Amino acid sequence: MKRYKWMTLGLGMALMLSLAACSQQEAEETASPTPDPTATPVQEVVESPSASAEQETLTLTASFQDEAGAALAGATVRFTVGETEAEYLTGEDGVLTVASLPLTGTVEVALLDDEGAETATATLELAQGSVTDVTEGEDGVWLVTLLADGDALSLDFVQTDDGVLTCALDLDETA
User: Fold this and answer.
1) Confidence check: pLDDT of 127 > 80
2) Staple 124 to which of 32, 52, 58, 107, CB 3.0 to 4.6 Å?
């Protein structure tokens, strides 16, 4: 009986030592070794296209006035890009600034009355090109071309009595 007792005790100790050795080996495998700077090869860092393809945006400064030339102070203006809408208030001078517009694509601009109904609208087709220009296209769409390396634009909007919002380049602000 004593012999079995010592064997059981010996086997228990052997099992405990085995478990301790295994857990220490797992800890060594999961610990990250300290890198040896002399053994690390020097690599040239090349920026991947996806990292450098950060989407550029347009900052638009827009002034709004009526046909008589009076600033539309405190007017609510809605900008719509795709499914995204945002409303802004013009300042006392009828001017507002909108950041993060796309450099290309369609932007809907609408002046709203106090109840939120549209009183005048304009559709802008934004593109990049060799010059900055605004021209009226078919169906009242304003073709806005921004210099290829540009990211800011100033436009003048005039609300006509018949609910049309005309658009022109603000030559005082556009470089």
Assistant:
1) yes
2) 107
Please give the model's pTM, rounded to 2 decimal places. Answer: 0.66
Q: Could you tell me the maximum CA-CA distance found in the chain, to the nearest angstrom?
A: 114
Q: Residue written as tokens 């290309």?
A: 104
Would you say domain 56-169 falls under CATH 2.60.40.180? yes
Backbone angles phi, psi at 167, to 5 degrees: -135, 140
CA distance 22 to 30: 12
**CA 63 – CA 88 distance, rounded (Å):** 12
Percent of the chain past pLDDT 70, that is, above it, reads: 67
137 pLDDT band (50/70/90 cuts)?
Answer: confident
Domain ranges of the chain: 1-30, 56-169
Of 80, 94, 114, nearest in space to 159 by CA: 94
